[in-house]
Prior knowledge:
The protein is built from 5 helices and 4 strands, in the order αααββββαα. The chain folds into 2 domains: 4-73, 3-methyladenine DNA Glycosylase II, Chain A, domain 3 (Orthogonal Bundle); 80-148, Alpha-Beta Plaits. The relative contact order is 0.13. It has helices at 4-17, 31-39, 51-62, 141-148, 151-186; strands at residues 80-84, 104-105, 113-114, 134-138. Helix 1 (4-17) runs antiparallel to helix 3 (51-62). The strands form 2 sheets. Strands 1-4 form a two-stranded antiparallel ribbon. Strands 2-3 form a two-stranded antiparallel ribbon. By secondary structure, the protein is mostly helical. Strand 2 and strand 3 form a beta hairpin.
Amino acid sequence: MKSSDTNKISFTEIHQALPQIQCGRCDTPGCKEYAESIVEGAPINRCIPGGNETLKKLQTITGNIDQTLDHSYGPSIEPQVALIVEDACIGCAKCIPKCPVDAIIGAPGKLHQIDPDLCTGCELCIEPCPVDCIIVEKIKSNDAITLRAQSQERYDRKRLRVTSKKKKISLNSSSNQSVANLYKKLL
């Protein structure tokens, strides 16, 4: 790429060209990270969910017109949302940590729901479900664009929360070990 000013503009343009599904199929956790990796020289053909439409936008932005979609990064994702079949849900909560935008509501042992106003249709919640109670429902393209418009903000908030929680656990692990050792001495 060109100068650092151009890279900043290119990052924004690239990020806006991506479909904001946050599915991670491109080998990065989300669309922002993929845009960053493209700015750093990664191939522009890994966004299978965005399809040829996204590839054409990226080709225009980067000037790299030689690449075709690399279908080894999975199948396309149509405009859709995931839904939970309530009668089949066992409340295992395995789907909740997989959702990149916190669209799944519920607690272990309780019925779960997917908020269709937040779901990007990434399908990441489907695989961990042991009872196959998650289905996808097609929606209009315009509805998908509206849903995905705020997905980066929700994705960033979840990553920050999960990262902060992991730091707290690791920071507290030594004090937890001290308490455990003290308890052993008392026994």
